[in-house]
Amino acid sequence: MKRIFDKTTILSTVIILLPIIPALIFYNQIPEVVAIHFNAKGVADGWASRAFAVFALPSLLAALNIFVQFMLLSDPKRDIHSKLFLLGRWSLAPISIIANTVTLLIALSIKIAIETIIPLAVAILFLIIGNYLPKSKQNYTIGIRIPWTLASEDNWNKTHRLAGWVWTIGSLILIITIIVGLPALIIFIVIISLMSIIPIVYSYIYYQREEESKNKS
Prior knowledge:
Elements: H1 7-17, H2 20-25, E1 33-38, E2 44-49, H3 50-74, H4 83-90, H5 92-107, H6 114-132, H7 147-151, H8 153-180, H9 184-216
Antiparallel strand pairs: 1-2
Helix pairs in contact: 1-3, 1-5, 3-5, 6-8, 8-9
């Protein structure tokens, strides 16, 4: 437990909870019912009480953050010097700041292009992950963790090298799509599907080739 609740866990959790402070300052100005979910066009389609939006949302992310820290730090193959490992440990902090700030601003009737901000933030996150995927070492918590990559370090390395290119190119397409104003939802679905499927298919094909090579020898 002492190892899990280190400086990074404590600091990231505190940052995740920070949006509660401005929400408390403007608490009386926030409506009793707050929009907390929006469709692809930025129209609210999910609501919650003011107290839930102010306290529960950051608290749920804080609890999730502690769970993520536990999983990462308990991984017997963890590489604490890996940029992807560090990214995983800090990933929920900016998500909390952005999501909860946007929720508060909209609750205060401040116009926010949420249909652009959130997808753009996601695309940038994917771009950063794509940059570090080829450098990740075999582990049980971060990366493309499928049977074939976990069974072979060579398969892991080659699959993640390809995935790095796929995720980087896919993310750039998404970013351009959002900036230009094209129908992002359809392109998002297609690109994210390809970003998931291509590395998995490649890993399986590589595994089959490895097996055929072993059988021949």
